[in-house]
Amino acid sequence: ECHYSIKKGAAFLGLGTDSVRVVKTDERGKMIPEDLERQISLAEAEGIVPFLVSATSGTTVLGAFDPLEAIADVCQRHGLWLHVDAAWGGSVLLSQTHRHLLDGIQRADSVAWNPHKLLTAGLQCSALLLRDTSNLLRRCHGSQASYLFQQDKFYDVALDTGDKVVQCGRRVDCLKLWLMWKAQGGQGLERRVDQAFALAWYLVE
Questions:
Q1: Residue 65: partners with Cβ closer than 8 Å, 6 or more residues away
Q2: What's the chain's average pLDDT?
Q3: What distance in Å separates the CA atoms of residue 168 and residue 152, rounded to the nearest whole number?
Q4: Is the CB of residue 112 less than 8 Å from the CB of residue 126?
Q5: In whole angstroms, what is the distance from residue 169 CA to residue 36 CA?
Q6: Domains of the chain
Q7: pTM reported for the whole predicted model
C-alpha cells in the first residue's frame, strides 16, 4: 500500500524497481511485521542485501498507519535503515487525540512529512527529518561549488540548504509552515487534524 514514489526512487537510484520487495498488509492496509521478517529472510537466502524498510503513516487510499514499533523491532534486529513516509500522516503528531497512531516514529532513521497535505499549508511544503546529526545530506549531496556556496557570508553558512539537497534551487518550505503555525497556533493546527478525522468518521458512518 506504499506510495508509488518508493519504486520511483529505486529507479532514480539505479537499483531498479525489481529491487523493491512489497510486504503484505492486513485488511485495514497496515503492514504485517511478520511478513516483513519473512521477506527479509527470503532476500538474504537469495544472496540479496536488504538495507532499507519504508513504512507508511497515512497511506494514500485507506489512510492506514503501519505498526511502527513492531517494524522498528524488525529493523533493529536486522540492522536496517527505517524510513517512515509520514507525508500525509505526520501531521497527526500535533493532535493529542490521534498522535498514538505514530507510536514508534521516534525510532525511525528518516521521516518524510508534507504539511501541505493534512495541514493544508501552501503547496508545496515538505520536510525530510533525519536522526543522523553528522551532516549526512551535505556529505551525500555536497559539491562545494565555490561560485554558489561562498564561505565568507555574514551569517552561519551551515544554514545554507542548497548544498545539502538534490535540487539546489528549492524554495524555503519551512517559512510557509512557520508563518501558518504562528497564525494558527498549536491548538489551531490540532483542530485542523481533529476536524479531518471527524469528517472521515462521518463519511464512513
A1: 30, 56, 57, 58, 89, 92, 101, 102
A2: 93
A3: 19
A4: yes
A5: 37
A6: 4-204 (3.40.640.10)
A7: 0.91
For cell 529505486, name the residue.
10
Closest CA to 88 of 108, 71, 66, 72: 66
Query: In this structure, what C-alpha cell is assigned to residue 116?
Result: 501541505
Contact 127, 87 (CB under 8 A): no
Taking the C-alpha atoms of residue 21 and residue 101, their distance in angstroms, rounded to an integer, is 24
Q: Which of 62-71, 89-98, 141-150 has the lowest mean pLDDT?
A: 141-150
Instruction: Flag whether pLDDT at 171 surpasses 80.
Output: no
Over 90: is that where the pLDDT of 170 sits? no
* 124 or 171, which is more confident: 124
